[in-house]
């Protein structure tokens, strides 16, 4: 049992004075360099995105402040791909970061992508054309990437990557165009390699966990499907009560798929409390490659079977660097020659203050502990609790609502928030602040406003539970 108590306006001002979030600035894009590769850097003082056109047009790094989320292969740092896109022995050049592949993966015919490594030339590893898209408009900056034509798949990928002001957000619009002379059927497959190494040290971090809601009407008996590796891999940890799939990074190779329709996944680096979220739109009536909208791969030692062959991943840093792949798949697109299909998703980042579970997610933030509140009889003091990670820089305030959801009274006391800092609502002493719970108030809502004063929406709402004590029930 715990409470968050804040006694008096003076103490509130003291808390605000000591709150020093990362300084957010207007979004900008510029040419840069990351680990020896020429890049385009999109940043806004909260997040920084490094895009490397020369190595497959990938997002090679995504940062919240100085915290890097993506795994990068330091053995290939700064190296340019050969004309084949493959290594000297035909091996896959795994640079790291985030990239696109055609889906489904497979080795049984031309309607499956037999990689990695992909067919020669491997379009995934070849240079992209890149350009900054126009001047800055609407508080954001954007670049466009155009990949070389993939003659095997008969498609060509392009992507637009955008960063906006005052938010830990990256918008990614991926387009697939049929460049063949016959119809082609593929899904867009985006693979982000999340670094699971210790920030300091040579081992892996035992506190990296991904969360994704399971489909309550899943076609899979357990709500997920093991695609590669052992079914009893300890990394697969479904929470059947909450219907959320937990995937913990362990040193055992494997892959699972989910037909999730919730439209989000989150990977928590619990040691540092940092969270990478991917939001997307699901299409429950459409068919997906592998029947999955989300997949997770654990790059680790062990054995798995693919294409009828057994593979063994050795326990060494070269074959089994510690990373987890968070993968999004679009539905299949039936494309006639010249037709295109576009898939939109969004990356967001936040800080939740530790290795807390992600119970839910919306466009404003993640919820680790739901909002709750209680008031003593007589409505002289309100106790508010919960834990959130916020995607926007701005303020949060409490709003009182009646039974129909209509606002009653005024919104008291704003609290500053930022993506780089966990947010836990504070208990406010309404007596010393000369504010009472308004008559007719039955619930509260947390309202997020950006730095320009625009109301963005509700982080959550909860009924007011009246008690005889001043503590969280």
Describe this structure in words.
The radius of gyration is 24 Å and the shape is globular. Mean pLDDT is 90; it is low at 1-21. The chain has 473 residues and is mainly β. The chain has one helix at residues 8-18, and strands spanning 5-6, 28-34, 37-43, 47-52, 58-64, 67-68, 98-103, 129-132, 140-146, 155-164, 169-178, 184-195, 208-213, 225-228, 236-239, 244-248, 254-258, 264-269, 274-280, 294-299, 302-306, 309-313, 323-329, 333-335, 340-351, 360-361, 365-376, 382-390, 394-401, 414-417, 427-428, 443-450, 455-467.
Largest sheet: 10 strands, antiparallel
Alpha-carbon distance between the two ends: 7 Å
Please tell me the overall pLDDT: 90
Major sheet: order of its strands?
A: 8-9-10-11-25-19-18-13-16-15
- How much of the residues is beta strand, in percent? over 45%
Number of strands: 33
The 3D shape can be described as globular
Instruction: Output the number of helix runs.
Output: 1
Provide the descriptors you would attach to this structure in a database record.
473 residues; mainly beta; Immunoglobulin-like; Beta-galactosidase, Chain A, domain 5; 2 domains; 10-stranded antiparallel β-sheet; 33 strands; 2% helix; 45% strand; globular; disordered N terminus
Task: Draw up the topology in text.
Blueprint: E1 5-6, H1 8-18, E2 28-34, E3 37-43, E4 47-52, E5 58-64, E6 67-68, E7 98-103, E8 129-132, E9 140-146, E10 155-164, E11 169-178, E12 184-195, E13 208-213, E14 225-228, E15 236-239, E16 244-248, E17 254-258, E18 264-269, E19 274-280, E20 294-299, E21 302-306, E22 309-313, E23 323-329, E24 333-335, E25 340-351, E26 360-361, E27 365-376, E28 382-390, E29 394-401, E30 414-417, E31 427-428, E32 443-450, E33 455-467
